[in-house]
Specification:
The protein is of the alpha+beta class. The chain contains 20 helices and 33 strands. Strand 32 and strand 33 form a beta hairpin. The structure holds zinc ion (2 copies).
Length: 638
């Protein structure tokens, strides 16, 4: 009888031929009800298949990727079955599960959004029929017999057969598809599903090959989960930073300037500047000093630093018309900063030396990969480099990590720290000596503990030149974004022959720490705009107050108030357009202006009634008190 080991190390003896579903039932009723697939010796398989031999098993539910995939890939088969009933001439190709759902690529099919609803109804019938989903062994001849006029399935099957793979199919009711699984036991498992989108695709993702129609869909174990997901999609769409960027007039793109090269409007620039100012304040408090470097450099610098090979075709090259020198637009700042370090002799007493600079780098990303501010070709980092001794790295990592904590807690965002270490089974792939690595990783781990960071270790994720901490910021929708980072570098200081004179008079090589708090400002903005939905906190809001005079007669007084507020350091504007007062107030709220001041007789006398963008009203309050209140709120960055 096979012996299986459960995740909690319990060992169970199971009868010969017992399936995943049998195992799930032995473990627990509840688990058997939620089970969608089973992992046996690291491989996900259908619950209906027997467990063959001894090994580790894990029951997979919707909480596990393998469970979700089984459910959603089954939904893809149900879609294909429904489609073939309604469109017998359509040729189905491939239908994998993806993050958040599945798709199916189909040839010879024309459908509209309305048709998707009809297909969904047909899918519902298949789910209600609760057909068993069974695996069948196939030969190449079976594929030919079942798909006589489908060259796509045949091409796949031939390739698999050539590779020596066993061909299998999955059957449900009158439908059968070439497929290696895994699947849920029956169509009734797919309780809630939706077809979400129609898109264009090509066979094998190759534009030179047949054009296909891609239908996207998703599936959940319950109606409630589906509804929640649909609501989230609506919210995300409303908050899409590209949409909000246009609506709130924060940034724009121009075909003449080029793709992936955002232009920031006055409002967007204010937002950027405020975020950068905060980051720089934290760094200056932490002992960093600002430097400045030009944006082009001779390519020799990057040949020496190793970036020439690393960035390759991503480098923008610049030719001098005066000399024969070849230049590149900088893709990183470290080599420049290293040159500032190298500009004079350094003693151990000078260390640590901390340089900071918010500056733009240029990388020639493929235009297909560019998207809003998330992927751009001009990216600005709040970059910084520390040059220090091995003994100082604990203090430096702590110092930088405190800045990161301060920054993100003020921004109302939580994060997880990924400690990216080397792969202990492949030490040869890394530069520097083993002791140094072990020591640095121990220090990083203890810093994470000391600062009580939510963290995890990721072996094999280190750069070849040193271990690092990547900060994965969680946004309002539970999505993770890699923003801040700090990385140890054992390689660059020696490439540039950086030195300091130690207390014993000997010349030694410092280590280098790369750090960024916001990371790429553009990418961070894309996250922050979606996180806030454009409702920026007062301290970084592009327009903090708007004055709305009730009539022509009060424009002069309103302008006076704007002037007082501006001189006091508040970003105030006037809206004296001819719209009604209520319309202008509404517009200010849509524009996400933090405070709105309707200006009439009372206000002329100095008593302000203040309205927030949420519609709350307070007052009367004097101009001076209002100003002080805002300045306090700004200073505290609430
Ligand atoms: Zn399949
Ligand atoms: Zn760097």
């Amino acid at each position: 009888m096979p012996k299986i080991t459960l995740p909690d190390d319990r060992v169970l003896e199971i009868p010969e031929g017992a399936t995943g579903l049998d195992v799930a039932k032995m473990v627990g009723k509840r688990l058997a009800k939620d089970a969608l697939a089973i992992e046996f010796e690291g491989k996900v398989q259908s619950l209906t298949l027997p467990i063959e031999g001894d090994g580790k098993v894990r029951i997979l539910t919707f909480e596990d990727e393998g469970g979700r995939d089984a459910l959603r890939h089954s939904a893809a088969h149900i879609f294909a079955q429904a489609l073939k009933r309604l469109y017998p001439k359509a040729k189905i190709t491939i239908g994998p599960s993806i993050e958040n759902g599945f798709y199916y690529d189909v040839a010879d099919l024309k459908v509209s959004e309305d048709d998707l609803r009809k297909i969904e109804s047909e899918m519902r019938k298949i789910v209600d029929a609760d057909y068993k989903i069974e695996r069948v062994d196939w030969s190449l001849d079976d594929v030919k017999a079942h798909f006589p006029d489908n060259p796509f399935k045949l091409e796949l099957a031939k390739e698999l057969a050539e590779k020596g793979c066993k061909l299998t199919a999955y059957k449900q009711g009158d439908f059968i598809d070439l497929c290696e699984g895994p699947h849920v036991p029956s169509t009734g498992y797919v309780k809630s599903f939706a077809l979400t989108k129609i898109a264009a695709a090509h066979w094998r993702g190759d534009v030179k090959r047949e054009a296909l129609t891609r239908i996207y869909g998703t599936a959940f174990p319950s109606e409630k989960q589906l509804k929640q997901w649909q609501k989230l999609q609506e919210d995300l769409e409303k908050r899409d930073h590209r949409k909000l960027g246009r609506k709130l007039d924060l940034f724009t793109f121009s075909d003449l300037v080029g793709s992936g090269l955002p232009l920031f409007t006055p409002k967007g620039t204010t937002l950027r500047d405020e975020l950068v100012k905060f980051s720089e304040e934290l760094q200056i408090r932490g002992g960093f000093r600002k430097v400045w470097i030009p944006h082009i450099t001779k390519i020799e610098l990057y040949k020496k630093s190793g970036h020439w090979d690393k960035f390759g075709e991503e480098l923008f090259l610049v030719k001098s018309q005066e000399t024969s020198d070849e230049f590149a637009l900088k893709p990183m700042n470290c080599p420049h900063h290293a040159q500032i370090y190298a500009s004079r002799p350094r003693s151990y007493r000078d260390l640590p030396i901390r340089y900071m600079e918010t500056t733009t780098c240029y990388r020639d990303e493929k235009s297909g990969e560019l998207s809003g501010l998330s992927r751009v070709r001009s990216l600005t980092q709040d970059d910084g480099h520390v040059f220090c001794t091995m003994d100082q790295i604990r203090g430096e990592f702590e110092n930088i990590m405190r800045m990161i904590k301060d920054l993100y807690s003020t921004l109302g965002m939580s994060f997880t720290a990924r400690l990216s270490f080397w792969d202990p089974k492949n030490k040869k792939a890394y530069l520097g000596d083993a002791n140094q690595w072990e020591r640095a990783q121990d220090i990083i781990k203890s810093v994470a503990h000391e600062l009580d960071l939510d963290h995890f270790v990721a072996e094999g994720e280190a750069a070849f030149y040193g271990p690092k901490i990547d900060i994965m910021v969680r946004d309002a929708f539970g999505r993770h974004w890699q923003c801040a980072t700090q990385q140890l570098d054992f390689a660059q200081p020696s490439r540039f022959d950086l030195k300091y004179t130690d207390s014993d008079g000997k010349e030694k090589t410092p280590v280098m720490i790369h750090k960024a708090l916001l990371g790429s400002i553009e990418r961070f903005l894309s996250v922050f705009i979606e996180q806030t939905g454009g409702r920026f906190p007062l301290w970084c809001a592009p327009e903090q107050a708007r004055v709305v005079p009730v009539s022509e007669k009060f424009v002069e007084g309103a302008l006076g108030l704007v002037d007082v507020l501006r001189k006091g350091g508040i970003r105030a504007e006037i809206d004296d357009s001819s719209e009604s007062v209520s319309k202008r107030v509404r517009k200010a709220q849509i524009d996400q202006v933090n405070y709105i001041l309707v200006f009439g007789e009372k206000e002329l006398e100095g008593d302000l009634q203040v309205r927030t963008r949420e519609g709350e009203v307070f007052g009367p309050v004097s101009v001076e008190d209002f100003k002080q209140r805002l300045l306090r709120e700004i200073k505290e960055r609430k």
